[in-house]
Design a protein that fits this description.
By secondary structure, the protein is of the alpha/beta class. It is 46% helix and 11% strand. It has a 6-stranded mixed beta sheet. It has a 5-stranded mixed beta sheet with strand order 1-4-3-2-5. A 4-stranded antiparallel beta sheet has the order 14-12-13-15. Strand 2 (56-62) and strand 3 form a beta hairpin. The longest helix has 28 residues, at 571-598. ATP binds at residues 230-237. Acts as a processive, ATP-dependent zinc metallopeptidase for both cytoplasmic and membrane proteins. Plays a role in the quality control of integral membrane proteins.
Amino acid sequence: MASEKKPNNFKLSPYWIYGILIVIFLLLNVFSGSNFQEVGKLSSSKFNEYLEKGQVEKVVIFNKTEAEVYLTAKALKDKSHKTIAVDLLGRVNKGPHYSFDIGNDEIFQKKLEQAVADKKLKDFDFKPKSNWSEIFFSLLPIIVIIGLWIFIMRRMSGGGAGGGGGQLFNIGKSKAKLFDEKSEVKTTFKDVAGLEGAKEEVQEIVEFLKNPEKYTVLGGKIPKGALLVGPPGTGKTLLAKAVAGEAKVPFFSLSGSDFVEMFVGVGASRVRDLFKQAKDKSPAIIFIDEIDAVGRARGKNNFSGGNDERENTLNQLLTEMDGFGTDTHVIVLAATNRADVLDKALMRAGRFDRQIYVDLPDIKERKEIFEVHLKPLKKVDGLDVDFLAKQTPGFSGADIANVCNEAALIAARNNKKAVDKQDFLDAVDRIVGGLEKKNKIVTPDEKRAIAVHEAGHATVSWMLEHAAPLVKVTIVPRGQSLGAAWYLPEERLIVRPEQMLDEMCATMGGRAAEKVVFNKISTGALSDLEKVTKQARAMVTIYGLNEKLGNITYYDSSGQSEYNFSKPYSEETAQVIDQEINNLIETEYQRAIQILTDNKDKLTQLADILIEKEVIFRDDLETIFGKRPFDVSEDEVVRE
């Protein structure tokens, strides 16, 4: 049976083209007798000298003004002509070897005729100046500029080194990557753990496209767009990939920055081309990741004059989204973690009809995400996934994937055959706290100060009802911290003032312990002070939990405050805010000092154990302090 002839997919690269041109240029020079050496300049007296010695073989006069001199082979062996004997390629220089300007052409012609008669010159000739090589060299800069321009345009149009000539002027074409039923998109909704509410919303969008009659028969209109909003790493792009895998319709995927270009009008042109392609293949989905790159509100930043192109692109995007017909069956999905900076015209109904909030996963959703990422790992039998979910509060889906990967790396580093529980705990410590610095030089006095500081956190948190109970305390340096305390807070949907105050008091326990034990304070409480200051400011200015200011907030959910350089309150109110923040922090600091003073012996005992072991756990605190009377179930672990 005859073999099937394979198509020739060879594409001539610009590098090949430029290389071929260079080779052709070299060959022309080789076979045309041209040289790569500049012709030597000669004076009339020197020419007369060479002519009298019989060293000149031929003279060619151009335009009756310029003479080119060809020397004899014997003359080229003379040392005086050593510099022009060979060209840059090492070949014998065939000439012309010298050139000079003649005076009166008639007198010069008579001189040459006499030299020929005396057999001192073989031949001479008069010619017009029309040397093609000189014309080529005069045009070479223009040729190089045109070649570079073509090369740059090819690269910017996405043709790359292997692109064909058809992509030369495709700079205004959309850069969207098309996924359809022929593409190998293996991500489905089964691969998206948690996010049940968001999955339900996007599943309905897929159903719109698969079976639109189900909704339109009752007079409903298919939504034109859905915006996925949420913190980084929560799975917005993963949801879009699942839509691509489930929809079985053309799926155009690109980033918001793909529209932005240095040339005026390119972004708007790409938007038009993208929506034209989607309409031609409808029903279809367009997914724009990080849409805030192009959808940022217009006119907010007036200090930069280079935003016209981005705003033109946004205007075109608004026009295209609003220009859909009810039967076009093209839906736009977009993702961002900065919905507050998006233009209001982009957010209105009729463009993005739905906003789907993709929040950080709760403990149940974290368990589901762990089960997805644990599948490819070789883990020990009976690994407690519920325990892992409790150890990672506030972690996003991307963070959990990182924990699983880091645990596998730690197990491999320790030559284990399977990943166990301790590897995951070490991975959480590594990700949240940073790399353990075993070789960090800490003096005995510094080590005791760190131990007292961390013991102060542990003691105060153990004695307060609403403070999170301790899991472990360490004085092993990690990342930028010299010690750390880990707690078990409960997940709260609302927080009451007494809970916030207890947390602030526990946070100030480190500095308070230094004051109680050493009667001195240090710079070690910087992160603690930053944390309590933010909490106190939030209580006073955001949550309306301060009695003196009353039920008022200065929080702006629209995000406009970051562009407003004036305070939303008077100077008198600012002084009250500062005073109330200071009062809150100082009150909790004195409260922590009182608790530690009442339990100074136990504080010192705990610090001594911490210096000896470097890491202590909940059991050590129960041995010293006894069981907490107001203990709650262990929900999750966070690091202060």
